[in-house]
Amino acid sequence: SQVRHFQWEVEYMFGSPDCLENVVMGINGQFPGPTIRAKAGDTIVVELTNRLHTEGVVIHWHGIRQIGTPWADGTASISQCAINPGESFEYRFKVDRPGTYFYHGHYGMQRSSGLYGMLIVDEHGNREPPFHYEAEFELLLSDWWHQSVHDQQVGLYSKPFRWTGEPQPPKTHNRRIILLNTQNTINGFTKWALNNISLTLPPTPYLGSIKYGIHEAFDQKSPPDNYDDANYDIFNPALNPNSTYGNGVYTIKFKNTVDLILQNANALAKNVSEIHPWHLHGHDFWVLGYGEGKFRDEDEKKFNLENPPLRNTDVIFPYGWTALRFVANNPGVWAFHCHIEPHLHMGMGVVFAEGVRRVGKIPRAALACGLTASVNP
Ligand code: C2O
Ligand code: CU
């Protein structure tokens, strides 16, 4: 067995783990911290220097039993004093058993700041692992918040406390669009429709035609925010399955909060209602709830506004409804459609336009077809 020495300095640095720059805690300028690789029976020596300016620090070796070295466990207030800014502490301990471990800060909420890394202990000496494998890679999973740990701490210690978490959804909506999903026929062809309109895309892309006010490019009448027959029986094939093609657009006021209620129904054949994964472009949405049967206004009371999942695709179950909320804060023209490709091709989608005036200079190549081919941006 060997003694493995490491010299580590802990300091704050900039990092963008999910492409959004933030302050993270690094070790020797790395986030996550360097991987320690050792063999069972080895002794690890980490000389840890605290380069933070205003906080103490400790590091805990998660899963290592610290037999005979309880002072090296790295828990502030439990096994050791926090290491003050500018000071160093030597962790010296034995890794007696092979395994995939990790290490992490154990003072305040420094783990949430990114103070962690991997600790991998291989078999003793030349001993082979008890199973055969071709290759390995290291995967380190952790929660990540955009809120700084200081914000998180203050929130948790407030009265009433504020739970650590991202953009809860706005509490109310400005507009509700209920989309009845039906299977229909148009001149004998089988189609899918929303509020009785089956989407057919125009030759001129909406983004350009809306930005340049080319009204002939598509149907200027907005599709309806609801289906008109309040007594529509979603549990049976439609009495009149006829539908129409359409390419109108839902124009959403910029920054409005929109609720989308997807209402499933019976398809053309008796006792058939399909599942559809609806996908929204350009946004994430909050999933506020699901229900069976027909959506009723009072179902709104059951919406989950506390911790709804944030996604960009969600299903609508057979004979059920799904409620989604999004904020129209992304200038552009965006599709919202069933992600089963044949369904979209059969008309199962709608189009939202928001804040198109604010869209920057559209590249020529994106306008080179249809009625925008001749505009000169
Ligand atoms: Cu991955 Cu319009 O979809
Ligand atoms: Cu579908």
UniProtKB/TrEMBL annotation:
The keyword Chaperone does not apply. One of its GO terms (cellular component) is plasmodesma. GO terms for molecular function: copper ion binding; oxidoreductase activity. Pfam families: Cu-oxidase_2, Cu-oxidase_3. SUPFAM superfamilies: Cupredoxins. Its main location: secreted. Residues 12-123, 231-355 form the Plastocyanin-like domain. InterPro entries: Cu-oxidase-like_N, Cu-oxidase_C, Cu-oxidase_fam, Cu_oxidase_CS, Cu_oxidase_Cu_BS, Cupredoxin, CuRO_1_AAO, CuRO_3_AAO. Keywords: Copper, Metal-binding, Oxidoreductase, Repeat, Secreted, Signal. It is found in: Secreted. Belongs to the multicopper oxidase family. This is Cupredoxin. It comes from Corchorus capsularis (Jute).
